[in-house]
Design brief:
Layout lengths: L1 H16 L4 H13 L6 H25 L2 H20 L4 H29 L2 H28 L2 H21 L1 H9 L12 H5 L4 H29 L5 H6 L3 H16 L5 H20 L6 H14 L2 H7 L1 H5 L1 H33 L4 H25 L3
Helix pairs in contact: 1-6, 1-7, 2-6, 2-10, 3-5, 3-17, 4-5, 4-7, 5-17, 6-7, 6-12, 6-15, 10-14, 10-17, 10-18, 12-14, 13-14, 13-15, 13-18
Amino acid sequence: MGSLLIAVIYLAFVSLGLPDSLLGSAWPTMREAFGVPSSYAGYVSMAIAFMTIVSALLSPALIKRVHTKWIVVFSIGLTVIGLLGFSVSSQYWMLFLFAVPYGLGAGSVDASLNHYVANHYSASVMNFLHCFYGLGAVISPNIMALALQHARWNEGYRWTAYLQMAILAVCLLSLPLWKAGTAAGGSGEKTAGDGIREALKVPGVPATLAAFFSYCAGEATCFLWTSSYFAGTKEGMSRELIAAFGSLIFGGLMIGRLIAGFIAGKLRDRKLIRIGIGVELLGILLIALPFPGYAAAAAGFLITGIGMGPVYPAIQHMAPENFGRRVSAAVIGLQMASAYIGSTFMPMVFGHLQQAAGIGIMPFWLLLFAGLNVSLLEIAYKRIAAHGN
């Protein structure tokens, strides 16, 4: 029964990844339909991410009061509403209306499942969990590419919503498994712990939050602007291929987390992060080099994703060890909020920057935030060590 519960948790993370990559893959076509500038994707992304921040900040209180299974079910239901709403949007302003359930559905389920796994399972399980997020994020751009080839962008959102509904049905049918999981020792029930104010006072937490912001600034920029990068810098590509290439970063994340899942038992989280960022820098270099055609840039985005892969789950898995179980729920909730602040504002900032300077600046932007990420994490490690955590 415990293995079935883990399978359901993995499936829930597939559902978490499905909505995240649709906007970036569809935007080159959507912006033409709405008649808006390319930078306007950043406003929609910001609205979605803002609601996710709200949801993530509420997650410590929810985790104390509500069983994880109900957070999962309710959150997936909200994303279904958001996806269906996007599919019927005929004007740009309508996207902001449906960004509310779209974003609220992500934050709490992300934080609650990460807290659950970080406290009850190994680093390998955590990496495999986020690997399934990558699987969901790879699937949806290809659904969108299929929709663009045979129908319209609206159908890409609708078909993804149908898949999300199927996952919701499985989660509903699996509700009794959570009781079995509790009996086996993986509670997922209401947990006590310190709140957000107490967590912010723990040495190393602020630097870790800033590192999470930097990581997600780069990651979310890739999520939203990869397809636009190919559309703006490479010639002779069909719109279907451009949309499909929006999945490169997600495919890399999935591969990186799959590899990390197998080697995490031999390497500690910090070493995984350092190796991952090194691989990420190699991928960014491939994107930046002026090779003819799109093959090198495509490989670069894939490798960048592979390098990014273990960073996010490793930081979250370290939370109970670095800061203590009592504050781990609050720390993970804060990490999610910091992550989504980066996801909220930085793709929008990049959107205006690339409109002025050209989308070709993207690899230099990614390099900046990769450097900030690793530097801030090293500062956090030193502060944790200095206080004996």
